[in-house]
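testing teh design pipeline on a random one, pls ignore if ur not involved
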């Protein structure tokens, strides 16, 4: 797959079937659309392409921050690579682009890509004021030399699969629904940085992660996880939150992981947390003794849960830049 960082870099040297959207999380609905389009394109002598945006249009237009993105843009590209796409374009989105008319934007697509087919969700729209609805695109395509295919949304467990559903599941710590929609265990990459060393002083050393602050994280709490470190997955317990037993109110969000039966140095390493199950909400304890006793219970519960879990697939990349 070729990845371009702007539509202007594309060449109209092949007839193209294209889908356009934010594709945050690349959930199972996105994957089904892309796989169907790609199979059709290859069967009809076309290349398959995705045009996505960063920043997310909603972030630019509505100022949503922080904790919005399900995937970092580079994670999104990693998933696209598994779907047999020929071309992915990450188009920078800004206020200027938001003011382009539907007709002008489609003209840019046709000029850059030799557009023959558009594959879209039924509620899709492009251009200023969302004027380029699916009916508008279908009518415009009759004269513009491209056809429009609409793709029905995917429904799982009685609800439509969407990025909004994934964000809502993350907010309530519902990892099962996140995994159902994404088709894989949620992963959060980061770099191990020096913490305050409190875990080591109570006999539970933790790896403190420096993480992307625009990511939509699971709800604060304690989780059974797998941690990818030094070339393999390790069972672990992770705390996501503000460490209320030690820290003042409103302190910054942190992720720290205790790798079970691990005795190595991780400082400066890239580490990936794969969330398996939420054990409990984060809570404040009266002192270190009470906290240490609960951590032991968390570790035992995590061991039992993780022993019954399949190891996640090997990551395609260990860091997000």
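output:
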């Amino acid at each position: 797959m070729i990845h371009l960082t702007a539509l202007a870099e594309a060449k109209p040297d092949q007839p193209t079937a294209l889908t356009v959207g934010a594709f945050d999380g690349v959930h199972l609905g996105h994957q089904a659309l892309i796989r169907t389009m790609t199979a059709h394109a290859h069967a009809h002598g076309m290349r398959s392409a995705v045009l996505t945006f960063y920043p997310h249009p909603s972030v630019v237009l509505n100022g949503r921050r922080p904790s919005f993105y399900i995937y970092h843009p580079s994670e999104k590209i990693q998933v696209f690579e598994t779907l047999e796409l020929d071309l992915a374009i990450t188009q920078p989105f800004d206020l200027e682009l938001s003011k382009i008319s539907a007709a002008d934007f489609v003209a840019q697509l046709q000029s850059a890509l030799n557009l023959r087919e558009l594959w879209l969700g039924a509620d899709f729209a492009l251009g200023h004021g969302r004027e380029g609805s699916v009916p508008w695109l279908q009518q415009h395509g009759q004269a513009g030399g491209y056809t429009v295919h609409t793709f029905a949304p995917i429904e799982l467990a009685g609800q439509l699969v969407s990025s909004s559903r994934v964000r809502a599941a993350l907010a309530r710590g519902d990892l099962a629904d996140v995994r159902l929609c994404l088709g894989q265990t949620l992963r959060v990459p980061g770099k191990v940085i020096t913490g305050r060393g409190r875990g080591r002083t109570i006999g539970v050393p933790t790896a403190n992660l420096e993480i992307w602050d625009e990511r939509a994280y699971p709800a604060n709490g304690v989780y059974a996880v797998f941690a990818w470190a030094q070339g393999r997955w390790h069972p672990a317990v992770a705390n996501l939150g503000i460490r209320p037993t030690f820290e003042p109110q409103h302190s910054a969000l942190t992720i720290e992981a205790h790798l079970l039966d691990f005795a190595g140095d991780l400082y400066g390493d890239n580490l990936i947390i794969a969330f398996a199950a939420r054990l409990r909400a984060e809570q404040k304890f009266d002192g270190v003794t009470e906290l240490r006793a609960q951590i032991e219970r968390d570790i035992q519960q995590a061991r039992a849960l993780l022993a019954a879990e399949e190891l996640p697939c090997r990551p395609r990349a260990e860091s997000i830049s």
